[in-house]
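Help needed: design a sequence for this.
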């Protein structure tokens, strides 16, 4: 089969940064062009990686006129895969994220919001307490790897600049143990590593076959590991069957003075220090008033503010949450938020931290029907958050809107809204 010819576009002038992380530009054919690896105002050449009826995507191959804000990336070979905003000054990144937030809400007609100062601490790198690596087998053995953006190929890495060092040490230790066992890279999917603030690390290894891993020994620097068979037809590292478990995969951290237990697969915030700042805003809004926490994960928000109940659907998260509420009066409800609507109450503040899809429509309808006194909405997707808040604005005023840089050097943004009943 003939190799598909690459399309190179020359002398393209880049526009603003957009939600998703690319620069917006216009292709010679008039289509919208979303470009990785560039900054606003730059003149570049690029390789087209995707063509659709209404837009195209590309990756820069050469910068002809560079922005004054451009930096050399810390990880020049792999930054586009995991942290494509390594190329800009940190202040520029924070300003861009606030602009993207504002634009997302303006698109929904919410143009007069009074934004609190965008929050970012000084830790640009080495903040992630969770990181996933792929594998690449070469003549000299197995290597950690990331997919190269815009291709199906991989790039060898020895760690991640975003991850805490305990994660990189543990990932290399898993790699070395797999090399000792002479496991072929094609039989492996990924390894997921988590680390606590104290530096303990745990892992989940995903393999494409039900391999005999009985010879696997827990490496130094790793508290525990679960090894899963993951259906190779699934593109994600989703457990299909647990094959082995070694050591203890539970970790714990103190969140606002409360000990929170979680494990390698739990929903738990990736950047604890920035999360604590958002939690301070939430706590101040709740005070001693009763509240309920929907989409609660292991309960980090609800437990920290003394919520009456946590609502969570994932089995593993529920198990952790039940450990975390021991000795308190907080109830853990094992249900999806849209099936736990009876817990939305007119006398309790509602806390929501949904996945990227945002609130289920039934949750929005229930809020508008029951009218809790406040809704506290933390989100990792400003587009769906803006959609939901637009649907709630008939009954609620926005009394606090703030962006948080939970994910420095990446395009991802977290935003916190406090809604008060009119």
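Sure. Designed sequence:
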């Amino acid at each position: 089969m003939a190799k598909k010819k690459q399309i190179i576009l020359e002398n393209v002038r880049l526009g603003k940064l957009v939600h998703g992380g690319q620069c917006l530009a216009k292709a010679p054919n008039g289509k919208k062009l979303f470009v990785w690896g560039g900054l606003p105002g730059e003149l570049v050449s690029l390789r087209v990686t995707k063509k659709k009826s209404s837009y195209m995507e590309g990756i820069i191959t050469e910068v002809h006129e560079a922005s004054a804000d451009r930096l050399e990336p810390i990880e020049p070979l792999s930054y586009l895969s995991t942290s494509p905003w390594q190329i800009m000054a940190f202040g520029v990144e924070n300003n861009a994220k606030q602009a993207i937030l504002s634009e997302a809400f303006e698109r929904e007609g919410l143009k007069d919001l009074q934004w609190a100062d965008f929050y970012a601490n000084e830790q640009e790198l080495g903040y992630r307490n969770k990181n996933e690596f792929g594998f690449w087998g070469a003549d000299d053995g197995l290597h950690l790897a990331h997919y190269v953006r815009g291709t199906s190929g991989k790039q060898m890495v020895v760690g991640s600049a975003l991850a805490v060092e305990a994660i990189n040490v543990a990932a290399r230790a898993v790699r070395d143990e797999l090399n000792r066992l002479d496991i072929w890279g094609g039989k492996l999917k990924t390894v997921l590593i988590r680390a606590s603030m104290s530096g303990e690390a745990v892992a989940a290894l995903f393999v494409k076959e039900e391999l005999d891993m009985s010879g696997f020994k827990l490496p130094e620097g790793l508290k525990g590991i679960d090894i899963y068979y993951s259906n190779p037809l699934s593109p994600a590292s989703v457990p299909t069957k647990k094959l082995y478990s070694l050591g203890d995969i539970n970790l714990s951290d103190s969140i606002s003075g409360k000990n929170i237990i979680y494990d390698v697969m739990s929903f738990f915030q990736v950047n604890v220090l920035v999360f604590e700042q958002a939690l301070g805003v939430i706590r101040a809004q709740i005070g001693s008033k009763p509240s309920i926490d929907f989409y609660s994960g292991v309960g980090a928000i609800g437990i920290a503010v003394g919520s009456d109940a946590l609502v969570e659907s994932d089995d593993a998260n529920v198990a952790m949450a039940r450990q975390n509420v021991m000795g308190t009066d907080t109830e853990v409800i094992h249900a999806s938020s849209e099936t736990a609507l009876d817990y939305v109450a007119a006398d309790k503040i509602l806390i929501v931290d949904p996945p990227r899809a945002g609130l289920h429509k039934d949750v929005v309808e229930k809020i508008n029907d029951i009218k809790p006194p406040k809704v506290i909405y933390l989100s990792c997707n400003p587009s769906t958050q803006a959609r939901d808040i637009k649907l709630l604005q008939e009954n609620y005023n926005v009394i606090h809107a703030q962006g948080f840089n939970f994910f420095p050097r990446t395009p991802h943004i977290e935003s916190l809204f406090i809604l008060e009943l009119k």
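Helices lie at 79-82, 90-107, 165-180, 272-286, 300-305, 315-324, 361-370, 382-392.
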